[in-house]
Amino acid sequence: MIFQTLLVVITDPIGLIFMFARFGSIGEWSVYRILLIYAIAVTSYGLAESFCRGFDYFPWKMIRSGDFDRLLLRPRSLMAQVAGSYFHLHRLARVASGLVTTIYCLQALKVSLRWLDICMLIMAFMGGFFTYTGVFVITSGIAFFSIKGLDWIYIFTNVSYQVTRCPMDYMPAALKYLFTFFMPMLLISYYPAASICGWTEDSYFKGFLALPGGTFFFLLASFVWRFGVRHYKSTGS
Question: Are 197 and 32 in contact (CB under 8 A)?
Answer without folding.
Answer: no
